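Appendix B. Raw example, untouched.
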Amino acid sequence: MELFGSKLPQARYNYHEYVTAGSKLGKQPDLTGGGLIRSAGGWRGVQQLRKAGSFQKSDERILGDGDFVESVLAEADEKMSLRFAYKSKGISLDHLQQAVATLIGIKPEDLVGASKARKVTKGRILLCYLAVREMGLSMTEIASRLKIALPTVSGAVQKGEDVARAEGLDIVKLLNVNI
């Protein structure tokens, strides 16, 4: 925020003006492309790497060297494998909602709708985080299920990561499944 103003309304306005001015510039060659070509400094860089016998893993969506690209893709593959494993075991949002409610000591239906009760808020934060980040469900689906606003889900996902980490919460143990 500080880059665009010290007060939120002014920062938002200045940011909007900045984006508008940038969009009027049109396509910028130095901001297009990605992956290995851009990381290596263009096609010449790629050709030099190949002549030197250096073949690197690349993906046009990821800017970085081969080792970095491999680590990002491996992490993404691991997350996708887990998400498919949950589905194959029949684990649904209902199961997760029940498990979180049991962990917190409330009824699953207490997580639905607006509530400022501490236990409910904590449970909703954990449910949003686990459903979105671990199970790969959409924030829109979670917002609809819990009858809360989409920005509320987004904020809960961010907070939920901290809560889950602080409590050493593991979704596999929470759901009591073998994956």
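End of appendix B.
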